[in-house]
Design brief:
Number of helices: 7
Order of helices and strands: HHHEHHEHHEE
Radius of gyration: 21 Å
Strand content: 5-15%
Largest sheet: 4 strands, mixed
Distance between the termini: 50 Å
Shape: globular
Strand order of the largest sheet: 1-3-4-2
Number of strands: 4
Structural class: alpha+beta
Helix content: 40-55%
Length: 196
């Protein structure tokens, strides 16, 4: 019985060209195989929002110092919220209230984490989600981004992505932000949405 990757390697990938040298042929096949693995992993792990169910035995305690919200670029966050609220209103949805406490503290904490790891991700979303649910949220979503230079460009990027757009247009009432630059001057963005 073939494993998934063995199946790809030995069944789906045909010999590239029998007239090439065996070394070149093997190199081409390895590149195709590695590319397929990378694409499979990218598809399997790409997501913009999660409202995860977690194992009841898992420790979901998550605390954060609310004072970290001072790191957030409030001006940029308000511009993003204004643009998102204008979009939501244009399609008949309620506008979102700005949460400058817990949701923003969790968003700032996550933006710090992305800067530390140098990767855009949704790691530990289940902890942020559960922490907000413990404070009365019904559902939680999240959008993240990197490298945009202003509010209009990040909102435009999110609206042009179906997964991000679904979060922006979701059934939420509040939003918190973690928007600030890394040491190289590049913006990182975390926006948390929730319904209360």
């Amino acid at each position: 019985m073939y494993s998934f990757f063995s199946y790809i390697r030995f069944v789906l990938i045909p010999k590239v060209n029998t007239k090439l040298s065996p070394k070149l042929n093997l190199l081409i096949m390895k590149n195709i195989y590695n590319g397929l693995i990378a694409m499979t992993l990218l598809i399997a792990f790409s997501s913009c929002s999660k409202d995860e169910l977690t194992d009841a035995s898992e420790d979901l305690s998550y605390t954060v110092d609310l004072n970290i919200v001072i790191k957030n670029d409030v001006t940029m966050s308000r511009e993003i919220l204004d643009l998102i609220n204008a979009h939501r209103a244009s399609i008949g949805l309620n506008t979102l209230a700005l949460d400058q406490q817990y949701a923003s503290a969790y968003a700032v904490d996550h933006t710090d984490y992305m800067i530390e790891t140098g990767k855009i991700n949704h790691d530990n979303f289940n902890l942020r989600s559960q922490a907000l649910k413990d404070k009365g949220a019904i559902r939680v979503g999240e959008n993240v981004a990197f490298g945009y230079t202003d509010a209009a460009s990040v909102v435009n990027g999110w609206l042009n992505s179906p997964a991000h757009r679904n979060i922006i247009e979701g059934d939420y009432s509040h939003s918190g932000f973690g928007v600030f630059k890394n040491n190289e001057g590049n913006y990182y963005f975390t926006q948390i949405f929730y319904m209360k």
